[in-house]
Structures are given as structure tokens and as C-alpha cells.
Amino acid sequence: MRYWTVLALAASTVVLYAADPKSVDQSAIDRTASPCVDFYQYACGGWIARNPAPADRPRWGRFAELADRNEGVLTDILQTAAVPRPGRSELDQKIGDYFQSCLDTAVINQKGISVIQPELNRIGELRTAEELPSEVARLQRMGTPALFVFAPRADAKDSNRTIASLTQGGLSLPDREYYLKTDAASVETRRRFQQHAAKMFQLAGDSEQAAGERARVLLALETNLAEASSDRVSLRVPEKNYHILTRKDLADLTPNFDWDAYFRAAGAPEFESLNVGQPDFFKQMRSVIGSQSVDAWKTYLEYHLLRAAASHLSDAFDQEAFDFYGRFLDGARQQRPRQSRCLQDVDAELGDLLGEKYVDSTFGPEAKARIAQLVNALVAALNQDIRTLPWMTKETQEAALAKLRAIARNIGYPNKWRDYAKIQVARDDYFGNFMRASEGLNAQRMERIGQPTDKDEWTNMTPPTVNAFYSPPTNSINFPAGILQYPFFDPQRDTAANFGGIGSVIGHEMTHGFDDAGRKYDGAGNLRDWWTPTDAAEFEKRSACIANEYSGFTSVADVKLNGRLTLGENTADNGGVRVALMALMDTLKGKENKVDGFTPQQRFFLGFAQVFCENISPEQLRLRALTDPHSPGRWRVNGTVQNMPEFQKAFSCKAGQPMVSANACRVW
Q1: pTM of structure
Q2: Is 349 an active-site residue?
Q3: Which listed residue (38, 71, 573, 628) is catalytic?
């Protein structure tokens, strides 16, 4: 049984304080390291030494460790649901039979390529470029992300309505830079990609010579798309990606692509205008379409279909896709166990059904209430932080406080579960289940175009996910049940460690509402400039400090971090940790007892750092430096604490030591 005492906070807020607290993870600490020289090594070195990445993981850290524990719960749920029995619920039938269809590799291999052959034949029957729009839409409905992305989105300047949205896409490699950079690693990646694509075409029935030629055509076509694509830093700037056009305007951009035919085939309702995120991409798509033969487009579409379906096909396709994307690009030495991959697929395709079962078995109302109390403490701290910022004028300060008051807080699971009633799941049809689930979810998405925005919906995470997110259009912070466990939170653990763990996560997500992108949305979720010019300039100066600082950190070998790509996450880390510490000190109100020889402040920083302990492959570090808006764990920790006088005081660090920045950055 877990015993609790209640500690009063200001403004009638309460937070639970463990009666017999556990402290930080002592075994994770490397006591040969100095916290003032390399705090990450000090906090995590012991864990890193004892926890090498498993052969099936290019990255192994505390997030993955918790996800594995969650996986045990989810596996039990799915194994039970998969047993046919009288009275089995529709929910259990869907998730159980989907899971079983994935596990049954004998049936999958016996069917071989026959399950996808009709789709390949249909692509092969294309005769003119005029047929391309309908075929692209059909493949997208079935879960193949070809050419671009069409989806409903909240209107950035009127978040209460959902509109149609087009954004760039259609690349097989992780980023446009993989096609355009001329360094040795990028050249080798393109060579290996061609080899991989050729093998996929051979598995689909092409001769070795024909497959090799088609792989070259594929790379050339995608290189043209990459040249037309915006870089990831530009994609983070909201106003650069908001362009309301009429359908006629869109047709003028790409007159050789029949958009009316595409929208009909996509199942979209009638609409007059839409947001075109990157007009230059769609303008240049005109020349790409005009310069490529129909056979080139058939090659492109066939590969994207095979890639999207590979894990749902026979072992040969599944293994080939892993060898390139998992082994070569990510650095994993072997595939995850089949059971784990099947579980992940159910979570991806039927996430709310599985999530509903997960929440029922792991996350009750008491847990939700306890986290809500922590959130209240963090909101109070951020309120105080904003009120006392020395660089912000009263006018902008009041607008920021109004936005903070408006933040919606969703804890554990969405307020409304997604409906899967129309999706049919068969026990012996894994590929078909994937196609039907994709089409069913796509149809639901299309229905939202032109409707009021459902601000309760979670679109990018499911309840078992070990993560959290802030949503600008809904101005909401969202914490799936999956992350609300040790090492982030444990009701029996020391309060300081909990504030360092889950408290910093809560503060991080709130600060996203005020990072370089989030600050451009108001409390209603609308893209609107509520800053005075003076405050905006001061914000940009302070955020530039963080961008420049992180750009100096090395990810791997000769690859530096991109401080502009990671700016939002780094700002949220720095602000979130500071706000969480403020909330802790307000909670303790001077009761600063030592536990295991550490002060509350020291336990707080250790609790923060220890959620980011990780081992990661060089391949992953290289890939993430180009694509991930998050810094690696080492720099999420060291980059944050070196900017904090509170950390330096807690560990008695001196000027000139690495964890004492000579040019400390601070936004929030």
C-alpha cells in the first residue's frame, strides 16, 4: 500500500508528498565523474556502463526502458484478447485478431506477394500522367505516403475550424539533405539506398538489371522532389507554412496535376480553399511531373507501396526493409522480436482501442488526480516566472499570463476515444487489416474537413506512449498514461526527484507554448502576434543565444547539432527545468532535508538528468542531428544545467568549469 501525506501550496494547490521516500537512482551515478565537469556522466555514467544498447535497439535509454515495461502490460492484454472465446467483446476481437494476424508468419509467408499483387498490377496499368492524381490519392488512403501529405488541420488563424491542408512529402530517405549533400556519408547513403530499392524491386518480380535501372530512376525522381522541399528549420516557422489558397490558385501552381480528381479520389468533402504549407514545393512539382515519364512515376509509386507495406508482407520484404532502414540508417544490429513489432503495429493502427484497455488496467482516477496536482504546482510556478521576468513589458506579460491560464490539461488519455466500428479485422489477413485500418482512419480524417475543430482529440500519441506533447492549435498540454511512471514519477519516491522527473516534463510542455514557434499562437490557439515589438526583439535575442550555444555541441564525429532545428525543444528544456525547480522550492517551503547525502536541489537535478540516460549508436546520432528537433540526452542535460546558476549553487561549481557557462542563456 502507498501512504501519502498532503503538503499545502499557495493558491489552495496541493501536492502529494511520499511518506517514506525513495531517492534518485544511486546505482546510475558515476562517482568518479565531477558534476561540475560533466553532469550527464555524473548522473548517468553508472547506468550507461551497465545498460549497453540491445542488439535490436539503436538507442536504449530510460524512455525505452519504461516503454519495455509498458510493453509487458500490453502484451498480456493482447494475448488475452487474441484467444477466441464465447462472448469476446468487439474491442478484444479487433485488437486480438490484428495481433494474431501479425504473429502468424506461416500464413503471411504462404500468401507471399499475392496479397499486394493486385495493387502492383493497378500501378503497372497506368498509361498517362493524367491518371497519376487518382492513383496517388488511392495509395495515400491505404497508408502509402506518396508525393505529398493531404490532411485536415486546424486553421492556424481560426483554430475553431478544421480545413484541408497540403504539405510537402514523398521522400524515402529521412530528410532532403540526404539527397543534396555531397559529403562521403551522404554519397554512401544514396548508393546503399539504390541497392536496397533494387532488391525490393527484385523481390516484386523484376530482373536484376531492370531492378537496378528502376532504382536509379527512383533516386533521380526523389532528388528532384528534395530540391523542391523546404528545410526542417523553415518548417518550424509557423507563418512560413501558412498560405490560404483557393482551389483555383492551387490548380495554377500545378496545372498538370488534376487536383479535382485527386480530392475526389481522396474522399474529401467539397471545400473552396485550403492551406498550402509550401507553395514552392507544389509549384516545382509541376516541372517534376512534366519531366518524368509515366514509367518513372510507376517506379516511384511501386517502391513507396512496397516500402509502406514491407513489414506486413513476407519475411523477405520485411528483412530487406530492416536491413536498410533499421540496420544501415539507424544502427540496429537485429530486428525487434516479432511480438514487439506486432504490438507496436496494433498501437499504431488501433491505438485508442488498445489504449482504452491499457488505461483500465494501469491508470485509475487517483493517479490522474495526483498528476493534476503536480501540474497545478507547475502552472503556479510558471505564472510567477512570467510575472518576474526582467525583460518583458507589462503589456506582453499580461497576454502571456492570459495564455497560461487558458492552457488545457489532458492527463492519461483523451477525453473521447476514437471510433473503429467500421474497420473490419480478420484473424488471417495481416496485410488486409493494415489496408482496411488505414482506409478507415483516413475516411475519419477526411470527414473533419470543414467541421468545427475537435480540440479533445489526440492525433499523434496513444495512452501507452512514453512521451508527452504540447498542441499549439488547442493550447493544451497532454501527458499519456505511459510516461506517468518511474523514472519520471513514482508516488513513493522523494518529492524532489519527482519534480526533477515528471515535473520537468510538465514544465517542458508548458514552455513549448512560449518557445520560438509556440509563442506565435495565442491562448485560443490562433496564429496571432500578441507581442510588443520590443519584447519580440528581446525574445529573439535570447533565443538566438540558445540556438548558437547548442550549435556548438557535437552530436557525433564531425556532425554538430543544428541549434535552429532544436531551438524549440532546447528552450522548453531550459525553461521547464527552471519552472519545475521553482515549483519544488515553493512546495518544500524551507523543509530542505538531505536524503542519501543529497540536498533537495541536488536530488532534483539528478532526477531530471536520469530520465535522459541513454546509449545510442553513431548512426542514430548522425540521423537525429539532421532530423530530430530534440538534442541527444547528453546535451539535453548538460546544455540545460550549464545555463542555470541554481545548478551551480547546488553542486558548488566554480567559474571556468564546463558546467558553468561563461555566456549563460535564458529565455524563460
Answers
A1: 0.93
A2: no
A3: 573
